[in-house]
Write a structure and sequence with these properties.
The protein is α+β, with helices and mostly antiparallel strands. 35% of the residues lie in helices and 45% in strands. It has helices at residues 2-6, 10-23, 26-30, 54-68, 127-134; strands spanning 33-41, 49-52, 69-82, 85-96, 102-114, 117-125.
Length: 136
């Protein structure tokens, strides 16, 4: 396990990010992100936009999701790696606090990892399913 914790292999860095996110460990999540990271949430997603810096990503995305959703988790299952590019097929599960509606939606994430840190992230998700859970 110690080799995994220190590995700079792109898939290992991305996997550490998912594990930190699932555990709610924002410090560990920030440790996987480059200082100049660009993190893009898809147009149509509630937090759509591009966030920069590790603090900007966790404050603008993870902390906001925790405020509005119970149990927001990205379950990573399939990794496709090509050099510094890592595409992950995953699933979001959560329950919207305001509506008590649950989501279970497939997503794809594209990461670019350089020097053992995530420098770019782009999310692809069925935003209609997420917004449906948000509707009163």
């Amino acid at each position: 396990m110690s080799e995994f914790v220190t590995s700079s292999a792109p898939a290992d860095v991305v996997r550490r990010q998912y594990l930190a996110s699932a555990a709610g460990d924002l410090a560990a999540l920030r440790a996987t992100l480059a200082p100049d990271v660009e993190w893009t949430e898809m147009a149509g997603f509630p937090l759509a936009g591009t966030y920069r810096t590790p603090d900007g990503v966790t404050a603008g995305v993870m902390e906001q999701l925790a405020k509005e959703w119970d149990g927001w988790t990205a379950h990573d299952d399939t990794y496709v790696v090509d050099g510094e590019n890592v595409v992950v097929l995953a699933r979001y599960t959560a329950t919207r606090k305001a509506t008590h509606k649950a989501i279970n939606v497939r997503v794809a994430h594209h990461f670019v990892v350089r020097g053992g840190l995530i420098v770019r992230f782009e999310q692809f998700v069925d935003t209609a399913l997420v917004r449906e859970a948000m509707a009163g």
